[in-house]
Amino acid sequence: MTAPLVELAGVSRRFVRRRDLAARIAGLVGAGGAEEVVHAVDRVDLAIEPGEVVGLVGESGCGKSTLGRLAVGLLPPSEGERRWRGEPIDRLPAARAREQQLRMQMIFQDPYASLDPRQRVVDIVGEAVVAHGRIAKRQQVEYVGLMLNRVGLDPTLMRRYPHQFSGGQRARIGIARALAVQPEFLVCDESVAALDVSIQAQVLNLFIDLRSALALTYLFISHDLSVVRHLSDRVVVMYLGRVVESGTADALFAGPAHPYTGALIAEAGRVEARKRAYRPVVGEIPSPLAPPPGCHFHPRCPRAMPRCREAAPPLVDIAPGRRVACWLHEAPFAPPA
Amino acid sequence: MSATAAMRDEPLLVVDGLCTHFPTRAGVVKAVDGVSFSLRRGEILGLVGESGSGKSITGYSILGLVDPPGRVVAGSIRYDGVELTTLPGEAMRRLRGNRISMVVQDPMATLNPVLRIDRQMTETILAHDDVGEALALERARDALLRVGIASPDERLRAYPHQFSGGMRQRVAIAIALINRPDLVIADEPTTALDVTIQGQILHEVQTLARETGTALVWITHDLTVVAGLADRVCVMYAGRIVEQGTTAQVLESPAHPYTRGLLDSVPARNARGARLRQIPGMPPAPLGLPDGCAFRERCPRADEACVADPPMRGTPGDPDRGARCHHPLDDAP
After folding, report:
1. Which chain B residues are Cβ-neighbours of A280 within 8 angstroms?
2. Is B101 helix (H, G, I), strand (E, B) or coil?
């Protein structure tokens, strides 16, 4: 069996809010609180096979963007190991780390904020690939032209600045910039969320075309279940920093095993729905600063049991390729510990 | 109020030929260009369109809140028999927040960051109804309960920054509904929220509209929201309504090729993993719209006839159902 292309093993990421001066002085007199720690990502395992499209879903604050940044190497993990084709990549020598970084690229959400407004498109797209010595400076114009063609933009516009383009065109510029260094793995973080419906379909089609043309592997992060379902082979659902369910897209959408996945699917909009009575999940995502004990979802869960308040359920296999972290799916005849 | 009784059967809101234009140095932007629709009491109308289609400006025009240099240059807006386009500012201000109110996408744009929630809510009540501080506070508390906020007493003493995004939007909706308005204009109020929170808010809004008979204009780009919420739908493109009808008529048998294109590009309506059926091209620039049908350059059915402006074609016996197209789709009823 070959190793996955990208693998995160027991990866965690904590963010600590340092106490400011006032809080430290308060601490001296015994009145200050402790440092606040957010477990944005809490011991997550994720393996992505070559050529696979993995969808990562969850609501704001669930840690999906942080996990994406960990996967692409924009953030170092607090704990755990990241591997590329089975090889650990967190302690590579500098030169090899740079090479490695080019294999993984990220496409960001906001096509307005992620492009330097003072750079022309020819430099936005071509700067990195020249800086890394993949092509010579004199080849830049020709190369950027190829990249723009590939994402469906007119190469004659490469002397323009980002503000001269529409939202959909800027999304394409962001994609061209990521593709320019010839990555094998792309992390798309809400890459179509800011686009209008008709433009969103065009950009999703571009992702589909590029996948087959360039044999790309994707981690596709989105809060929009219909987008994730459409693109993904496999889907991972996160809630407050933990993976609560994963499985093939077909199996997961046909029969969600975790009550949270079920709620997300029930709430996802459908054009076919007639005027309907909404039966929503109660409550909101709790603050990640003080997550509930046990299963993080239990205060909102319609099927919560006393046990869910006490201990966090482990992520267990319930079918080939299907994992869920919920006490409802514990093996029924497990021997007592 | 005097004219109200005699006009029970008349729609609550009648917008007729509304044109809101913005003069700029480069030319006149016709943000809203001949929009007509009507709304009955207790009805929920979904106003759907992409960015720049004029859906929000239509909402602001009804409220008399179009920023200069933009202004309503033609058409009429009759609310409960009163013409709003010529209403003096002071009379419009009394109507706003009392009989007509608004919810916007970003609740921080409507909530005052340095005032506690109780103050913001009682001010809204007392500005229109001099009931005294104690009763106003009682009403504020009820309003928070009705939009699903637990422990309202504690929440009343909080500031907006202490709330989550979903909670802020609930407070904004509670304030919009606090004087039991006849009409609420809601501009993408759930777009920035998570699906489970959106579901809760749609649920509460739906219940409130049913209980209080409040009519809603729900402005959104999201077809899935109108599918679940609205009684009727108007689809806007380049400043005009291109199709209208009941939610079932518009979503199940769209007559306008643009509506059809929007529905077809929804991922769930395409085979999984396959390319989506996309509308080619981009919405036209607001300056220099083409003559005739603004959609014709992206339209698979367009021909020479589309150079001429298509009229809104109604359906015999059903004036609320129609499409602005020379070649409407055949499967329309």
Report:
1. 196, 199-200, 202-203
2. strand
Question: Residue A153 in 3-state DSSP?
Answer: coil
CATH class of B9-99+179-259: alpha beta
Phi/psi for A85 (5° steps) reads 45, 45
Task: Please list every residue in chain B whose beta carbon sits closer than 8 Å to the beta carbon of residue A282.
Answer: 200
Contacts of B7 (CB under 8 A, 6+ apart): B80, B81
> Residues B62, B67, B73, CA angle at the centre, nearest 5°?
60
Quick: pLDDT tens for B183-230.
Answer: 999 998 887 777 777 887 888 888 888 888 899 999 998 888 898 889
The span from the CA of A326 to the CA of B3, in Å, is 61
**AA identity, residue A123:** D
Residues present in chain B in total: 333
Residue B18 · residue B58 · CB < 8 Å: yes
The ipTM, to two decimals, is 0.80
Within its chain, how far is the Cα of A323 from the centroid? 18
Measured over the CA atoms of residue A181, residue A183, residue A187 and residue A192, the dihedral's sign is positive
Residue B254, both tokens: 């769209």
- Edge-first strand order for the sheet with B44-48 is B100-103, B183-187, B215-220, B44-48, B232-237, B240-246, B318-324, B312-315
The distance of B129 to chain A (nearest Cα, Å) reads: 33
pLDDT in tens, B100-145: 999 888 888 888 999 999 999 999 899 888 888 999 999 999 888 8
Q: 3-class DSSP state for residue A317?
A: strand
B3 DSSP assignment: T
Whole-number Å distance between alpha carbons of A67 and A45: 10
* A275 class by beta-carbon count within 10 Å (0-12 exposed, 13-18 middle, 19+ buried): middle
d(CA A288, CA A153): 41
Would the CA dihedral through B319, B323, B324, B328 be positive or negative? negative
CATH class of A6-244: alpha beta
- Between β-strands B13-24 and A242-248, what pairing exists: parallel, antiparallel or unpaired? unpaired
Strand partners, A12: A79
> Are B224 and A269 a contacting pair at CB < 8 A?
yes
Work out the angle at residue A242's Cα, subtended by the Cα atoms of residues A12 and B267, and round it to the nearest 5 degrees.
Answer: 120
Helices (H), chain B: 55-63, 89-95, 117-128, 133-146, 152-156, 165-177, 195-212, 223-229, 247-252, 257-264
Please tell me the distance in Å from A196's CA to the nearest CA on chain B.
Answer: 6
* Residues with pLDDT less than 50, chain B: 1-7, 332-333
- A283 by Cβ neighbours in 10 Å (0-12 / 13-18 / 19+) ranks as middle
In angstroms, rounded to a whole number, what is the distance separating the alpha carbons of residues A144 and A142?
6
Q: How far apart are CA B184 and CA B249, in angstroms?
A: 24
Encoding tokens for residue A27? 């601490």
- CB-nearest to A270 from B165, B224, B272 is B224
CA A159, distance to chain mean position in Å, is 32
Residue written as token pair 């990640």: A288
